[in-house]
Structures are given as C-alpha cells and as structure tokens.
Predict the structure.
Amino acid sequence: MSKLLYRIIRGDCLEVLPTLPDASIDAVITDPPMMLSSGAVIKRAPHHKYRARSDIVVDFGDWDRFRSPDEFLAFTERWVAECCRVLRPGGAFVSYFPKRYVSYLCDMLEQRGFKTRDILVHCLSNPAPQARKVKFMQGTLFIVWATKGGAKHTFNWQLGEHLNYIITPICQGKERRRWRHPTQKPLKAIEWLVAYLTKPFDTVLDPFLGSGTTMEACQRLHRSCIGIEKDPHWCEVAKQRCFGKKFLDIEVEYRFEGV
C-alpha cells in the first residue's frame, strides 16, 4: 500500500534544504518572499460618512524586506540552487515570482539544466483598487514553471485542456478568515498546479510553507508534502490546518519537526 507523508519543518529553508537528500523531491511548488514590501501607506477615503475604509499598508513583514534588488536575487539564488539539487530528474519547479524579475529566475534555472516550460498567470478577479488613481489595478501574478532535465516531466493532460492562466479572487471569505496569512494564495490556484504538474503519491516540497496552503492542496489530491517555515506562528497554523486529516485506505504519517 502506498503511504503519504506530511512533514512540517520549523526552520530557515537556507539551513534546512541542505539536509535533504539529492533527487528526493518530485516537485517544488512555492510562493517565496518577493521583495514586495515597501512600507508605503495608502490613505483611503471614507466609504461613507459612517464608516471609514482601512488604509492599505504595503508591508508583509521582515521576511519580505531586502535592502536592495541584488540582496533579493542573491537570496533567491541560494534557495533555488538547493531546490534544483533536491529535485529528481524530470521534476517540476513551480514558483510565484515578481514580474520584474521573472527572467532572472528563468536564467537561474536554465543555468542548472532546467527547461522553462511556461510563465503561468494567476489572474485576480478582484484586485486591490488603485486608491491613488495613477496606474492600472494590478490583477496578475506570475508563476515560473520549469522542469529538470534527465527524464520525462509530468503534465496531466488527461485532466483536460487548460489555458496557461487561472482566474480566482484574492483569497477571501472563510478561507481567508481562518488563516489570515498576509500573502495567502487561494487553495484553488495551488490545487490547479498540483493537479496538472504532479502525480498521486509524488512528494511536493514547499520551502516557504506559510499557513500551509500547498500542504492542504497536496492532501486533497493525495500527494505527500514537505513544508519548511521559519516563523513558529505559521508553523503552528499549518499544523492545525493540515494535521489530523482523515484518509480512506491510505496509510498516512505526520511529522512536525522543530529546529
């Protein structure tokens, strides 16, 4: 009988990734720090005279702050290099990434023997409004999909033809209220990636697990998952969210490892 393993490791991915064996992972699916935090505060006018709308603060936390683009790209290259090492031949590397730097990430991967398969697009049906009225609303997120050479890659075409984009709202409603991570992605979008780009019982790695969306998507689709997260709070959130799920006729193991 095949076995599923869900493993949350509390620690910095730059320290944890080197401990994973070579070619031990089938796919990396992640939403990493992207240097989007600027600290800017956008003042919003009152919605009506009885209730004001909250200001928008563009600051996700220390983990998303970098002193310069060079520092950000150097950090990215370190974790990407380790992910390339642990992926098996034919394995998929799938990562959200800021549109300005997508080409840099593609170059990092191609220099390590990967092939860029596509730049997928996550379209937001309800993007944040442009309160300052000086540019277009930002309704697209970009996802780099590349595969490691040496073996055939996975693409589950039998699920049906699908455009290279998906349209969802920003994570909201009950899903948003329960976990409330500042950059939380909708489960529907991550399930789309897991479903098409991995096989049942594959092992998926997310080196920036956050509130555990990737792990929950893997659980729903019967993939194993290893998640790394350095913030103790989000480790506990992911543990509460994902551990204790019930499966029929499948042996499951859960591990929570503090570092």
The first helix runs from residue 13 to 16. The helical segments are 13-16, 69-86, 102-110, 173-179, 187-197, 213-220, 232-242. The radius of gyration is 19 Å.
